[in-house]
Write a structure and sequence with these properties.
The complex is a heterodimer of chains A (294) and B (443).
Chain A: H1 17-31, H2 33-55, H3 59-73, H4 76-91, H5 95-125, H6 127-142, H7 149-156, H8 160-185, H9 188-196, H10 201-234, H11 243-253, H12 256-282, H13 285-291
Chain B: E1 17-26, H1 30-38, E2 51-61, E3 66-70, H2 77-83, E4 92-97, E5 100-101, H3 107-116, E6 118-121, H4 133-144, H5 148-161, H6 177-190, E7 195-199, H7 207-224, E8 227-232, H8 235-241, E9 244-249, E10 252-257, H9 259-264, H10 269-275, H11 280-283, H12 286-289, E11 296-298, H13 303-313, E12 317-321, E13 327-332, H14 333-341, E14 357-358, H15 368-372, E15 378-381, E16 387-391, H16 393-400, H17 419-424, H18 427-433
Parallel strand pairs in B: 3-8, 3-9, 6-7, 7-8, 11-12, 14-15
Antiparallel strand pairs in B: 1-2, 1-4, 4-5, 9-10, 12-13, 15-16
Classes of the chains: A mainly alpha (294), B alpha/beta (443).
Subcellular location (chain A): Cell membrane; Membrane
Protein name (chain A): ABC transmembrane type-1 domain-containing protein
Membrane topology (chain A): Multi-pass membrane protein
Chain lengths: 294, 443
C-alpha cells in the first residue's frame, strides 16, 4: 500500500487514500445493496411521479399554476414575469427539460431540508453535535461538486437517482448551517422567558425558537434550492436528465445555440425559485411583525 | 413539596423566598471552587477553578415585600435572581420558594413551580415578536394549560391593570419601550404567581418612563401584595422601590438593610462611596431626619409650667399635645409668660394651631416647599395626628449633604438656629447646643 514517493522526489510516502475510499465504496455497494436498491426505488418513483405531474398537462396550464404561486408569494409583477419566462422556456423547446430539472430540484431540496433542518436544530441545541457536524459540512461544501457524482454512479448507476443523491449532499449544508445559526441567534432572554414561565424545551423550540429563527431558516431554504439547481445542471454529466443533459451535450458538441437556450432556461428557473422562496421568507410571522413597524 | 399554595398566602412569619448560603461558580471545577471559598479563599484565588458569580448569599424575603438586589454589572445580581426560579442551579446552598427547595427538585417539579409560584420580568422585555400583546400576556396561562377563553380574559385583565387596555391586538414592535415593558409586567401578573422577579426591568427605559413605571409598580404592589425581588444597578431606583436592599459586590452581598440604613450607616467604604451620589432628598424621609421636640407640654397643664419649661430649655415656643400625644399646636413664650403672670389656669386659649404638619414617610424633597412657607419647624405627625418629631429648616439642609463631617448619620442634623455654628460643630457640640423649636418663633 505504502510505496516510497517517486516522481515528487520527496520522502513523503504515497498514501493511497483514494484507493481506500474506492474499496470502501465498493464494500458498501456489496454489503448494502438491498438498502441502496430501496433508496433508488423510492427516489426514482418520487421523481417520476413529480416529473409526470409537471410535464403531462399543456405547458401553459403549468406555467399559469407557477405564475399563480409567484403572484401569491410576492405579487402580480412576479406572477406576470413568471408566466412570460416559462412561455419563453417553452418557445425555446426546453419545456420538458425544465420540468424534469424542476422535479429533480424539488425532490432533492425536500430531502435535503427534511434531513438538514432537524440536524441544524440538533446542532444548535447540542455543542457536541455542532462540533462534529461543522467540519463535515465544510468538507461537503468545498469538495468539487461533481466528485460526488462518482461514488453515486458506482452505487446507483446513471439516471436521475445519482443526480438527486449528489444534489442532496451538495445542497444540504446551508440548510443545516442556517438553521443552527437561526436558532442560536434567537434572543436568549426570550428563550429564558419561556423557561421562566415553565415551558418545556420542546415547546420552547416550537413556540419560540423556530418561529423566531424562521427568517434565517428560510434564507437557508432559499440557498438549498439554489445550490440544488446548480447541482442538478452538473448532474447532467451522469444523465440525470433535464436541462443539465442539454448543457452537457452543448458543451461536448460546442453547440452555442443549444448551450444558450438551455442555460437561459436554467436562469429563468433560478430566478423563479429564488424570488418565490425569498418571498416566502418575508412571509414568516416574525418577519411580518418586524416589517409592521416600518 | 405540597400542592399549589398561590391561593393561600403563607403565614406572615414564613418567608416567601429564602436563600441559604448559595454559591454559583461557572467553570471547570465549581465544586472545588466552592470548598475553597467556604474555607476562606478570595474570589481571585479560585479564578483558575471557575468564575464565582455568587458567593455565600443568604437572605429571606417576606411575603409582600419589595426586596431590591443592587450592584454594578458583574456583581452577580443577575445570576442570583436566576437561581430564584431555577434558570441557574446553585452550585451549593438552598433556594427555598415557600416550602419547595429549588436545589432539590427535578425538572418537572421545577417547571410546575415556575408555573405556579414565580414569574419574571426581563430587562429587554423578552416578548414574542410574532404574537399580539394579548397573546404575549396570555403566554404563561397557555403554558399553565388554561383554556383559551379564560386565558384571554385574564390576560386582558392584566393588560387593563398596567394601562394597556386598548392595545391587545397590537404587535410588540408597534409599541414604545415603556409600553412593551408594561406588556412584560402584564404577562408576569397574568401568571398570577405570588413571587415576581424583576431583572433590571426598568433599566432599558427613558428616565421619565422609568419613574412612571416605578410608581405603577408600587401602586400594583400595594393593590396585589406580590412579593417582588427587583434587580437594579441604579441606587436611586433601589432606594425608591425597595423595602429592603441587598448591595452586591464581586459576588458577595455586602449589606442588607432599608434604604435609610444603607444611606445613614453604610457597611463599608464601597457602600459609602456608592451612596455618595444618591439623591438623598428622595430617599431620606421626614422620619429619618426628624428629631425629638425639645419641649412638649400637655394641653391640660397651665401656662406657668409651659413658661418654665421653655425657659429651662432656652426656647421660645413649645409644642402642645393632648394625653395621646395628638398635636394641638404651639404655645409661644410671649403668650405663655404674661398669661402665667396673670395666673391663667389653662393653656387652651393660648395655643396657636397654625403648625405645618407632614407625614413621616414624606421624602425630604417634598419638605422644602412647606418648610419655606412657615417660620416654625415642620411637625411630623402620624396618621392619628400624634406628634412624632419635628424637622427644623437647618436639619433639612444638613440632611441633604452627604455625611462627610458626620459619618453620614442622619441623626447628626440638628435644630441649631445658626447654620454656621452647626457646620462647624461636632455632633456632640450640636447636641449640647440644643435643638429647640424656636426658629424665628417670635415673629
Amino acid at each position: 500500500m505504502i510505496a516510497a514517493a517517486t516522481d515528487t522526489g520527496t520522502f513523503v510516502p504515497r498514501i493511497e487514500l483514494g484507493a481506500w475510499v474506492e474499496s470502501f465504496i465498493s464494500w458498501m455497494t456489496d454489503t448494502f445493496d438491498p438498502v441502496f436498491d430501496a433508496i433508488k426505488t423510492f427516489f426514482e418513483s418520487t421523481y417520476d411521479g413529480l416529473a409526470w405531474v409537471l410535464s403531462t398537462p399543456p405547458f401553459f396550464v403549468v406555467a399559469l399554476v407557477l405564475a399563480a404561486l409567484a403572484f401569491w408569494a410576492r405579487g402580480w409583477k412576479l406572477g406576470i414575469g413568471t408566466f412570460l419566462g416559462f412561455c419563453l422556456v417553452a418557445a425555446m423547446n426546453q419545456w420538458d427539460n425544465a420540468m424534469e430539472s424542476l422535479a429533480l430540484v424539488i425532490v432533492a431540496s425536500v430531502v435535503a431540508l427534511v434531513v438538514g433542518i432537524p440536524l441544524g436544530i440538533w446542532a444548535a441545541r447540542n455543542e457536541h453535535v455542532s462540533r462534529v457536524v461543522r467540519p463535515i459540512l465544510d468538507f461537503m461544501q468545498t469538495m468539487p461538486a461533481f466528485v460526488y457524482l462518482i461514488p453515486t454512479v458506482v452505487i446507483f448507476l446513471t439516471g436521475p437517482v445519482p443526480g438527486i443523491i449528489a444534489t442532496v449532499i451538495f445542497a444540504i449544508a446551508p440548510g443545516v448551517r442556517f438553521t443552527e445559526l437561526g436558532i442560536r441567534q434567537v434572543d436568549a432572554e426570550v428563550v429564558e422567558a419561556g423557561r421562566a414561565f415553565g415551558s418545556t424545551d420542546r415547546r420552547i423550540l416550537r413556540q419560540i425558537q423556530i418561529p423566531l429563527a424562521m427568517p434565517t431558516i428560510m434564507a437557508g431554504v432559499n440557498q438549498v434550492i439554489m445550490l440544488a439547481l446548480s447541482m442538478v445542471v452538473i448532474s447532467g454529466m451522469v444523465g440525470a436528465g433535464g436541462l443539465g443533459d442539454d448543457v452537457v451535450a452543448a458543451l461536448q458538441r460546442v453547440d452555442v445555440a443549444l448551450g444558450f437556450e438551455a442555460g437561459l432556461a436554467v436562469v429563468i428557473l433560478a430566478i423563479f425559485l429564488d424570488r418565490v422562496t425569498s418571498a416566502l421568507a418575508d412571509r414568516a410571522p416574525v418577519a411580518k411583525a418586524l416589517k409592521a413597524t416600518r | 413539596m405540597t400542592g399549589d399554595s398561590s391561593t393561600t398566602p403563607a403565614p406572615a412569619e414564613a418567608p416567601a423566598v429564602s436563600v441559604r448560603g448559595v454559591y454559583k461558580v461557572f467553570g471547570p471545577k465549581p465544586g472545588e471552587a466552592v470548598r475553597r471559598l467556604q474555607a476562606g479563599s478570595s474570589r481571585d484565588e479560585v479564578k483558575s477553578l471557575g468564575t464565582a458569580a455568587v458567593i455565600d448569599a443568604s437572605f429571606d424575603v417576606a411575603p409582600g415585600e419589595i426586596f431590591v438586589v443592587m450592584g454594578l454589572s458583574g456583581s452577580g445580581k443577575s445570576t442570583l435572581i436566576r437561581m430564584l426560579n431555577g434558570l441557574w442551579a446553585p452550585t451549593a446552598g438552598d433556594v427555598l420558594l415557600g416550602d419547595a427547595n429549588l436545589a432539590k427538585v427535578d425538572g418537572k417539579q421545577l417547571r410546575a413551580l415556575r408555573r405556579s409560584r414565580v414569574s419574571m420580568v426581563f430587562q429587554h422585555f423578552a416578548l414574542l415578536p410574532h404574537r399580539t400583546v394579548l397573546e404575549n400576556a396570555a403566554y404563561p396561562l397557555e403554558i399553565q394549560g388554561v383554556g383559551k377563553a379564560e386565558r384571554q380574559q385574564k390576560a386582558q385583565e392584566a393588560l387593563d391593570m398596567v394601562g394597556l387596555s386598548g392595545w391587545a391586538d397590537s404587535l410588540p414592535s408597534q409599541l414604545s419601550g415603556g409600553m412593551r415593558q408594561r406588556v412584560g409586567l402584564a404577562r408576569a401578573l397574568a401568571a398570577d404567581t405570588d413571587v415576581l422577579l424583576m431583572d433590571e426591568a426598568f433599566s432599558a427605559l427613558d428616565p421619565l418612563i422609568r419613574s412612571e413605571m416605578q410608581e405603577q409598580l408600587l401602586e400594583l404592589q400595594e393593590k396585589l401584595g406580590k412579593t417582588i425581588i427587583f434587580i437594579t444597578h441604579d441606587l436611586n431606583e433601589a432606594m425608591h422601590l425597595g423595602d429592603r436592599i441587598a448591595v452586591m459586590r464581586d459576588g458577595r452581598i455586602v449589606q442588607i438593610g432599608t434604604s435609610e440604613q444603607i444611606l445613614s450607616d453604610p457597611a463599608n467604604d464601597y457602600v459609602e462611596k456608592f451612596v455618595a451620589d444618591v439623591d438623598r432628598s428622595r430617599v431620606l424621609t421626614a422620619s429619618s431626619v426628624m428629631q425629638r421636640p425639645r419641649v412638649t407640654v400637655t394641653i391640660g397643664s397651665g401656662p406657668r409650667l409651659a413658661a418654665r419649661e421653655m425657659r429651662d430649655a432656652d426656647v421660645t415656643s413649645a409644642y402642645v399635645v393632648d394625653r395621646k400625644r395628638t398635636l394641638k399646636g404651639l404655645v409661644h413664650a410671649e403668650a405663655a409668660v404674661p398669661a402665667a403672670r396673670e395666673g391663667v389656669e389653662k393653656l387652651e386659649g393660648l395655643v396657636d394651631p397654625d403648625v405645618v404638619t407632614v407625614h413621616p414617610d414624606t421624602p425630604l424633597a417634598e419638605l422644602f416647599a412647606p418648610a419655606a412657607g412657615t417660620s416654625v419647624p415642620l411637625a411630623v405627625v402620624d396618621d392619628e395626628g400624634r406628634l412624632l418629631g419635628i424637622v427644623p429648616r437647618v436639619t433639612l439642609l444638613e440632611a441633604m449633604a452627604p455625611g462627610d463631617n458626620g459619618n453620614g448619620n442622619g441623626d447628626d442634623s440638628n435644630g441649631d438656629d445658626s447654620p454656621e455654628s452647626a457646620a462647624d460643630s461636632t455632633p456632640a457640640e450640636v447636641l449640647a447646643d440644643g435643638d429647640h423649636p424656636t426658629e424665628g418663633a417670635s415673629a
